[in-house]
Amino acid sequence: MDSEPTHAPSADSASEGRRCHGPFGAAAKGTRCPDRARFIVSRHIDFPLPVCPEHLGPALLLARNVLWPPHISLVR
Length: 76
Hints:
Blueprint: H1 11-16, E1 39-41, E2 49-51, H2 53-62, E3 72-74
């Protein structure tokens, strides 16, 4: 039986989910913020937005579908 090997997620892919996605969510290639996300901003009909402290303010003002008043969670 031919089956594709299963791979455990690498450390890079696991940490990628904790990286800041910038104030808009989807950063252009090569422009993603290298900092670790410290906050999660909830959005209406959209995925939550992980951001670093530097991008928290711009994300609240500029990101699509941010709930108002904003719902912000601290990432541990």
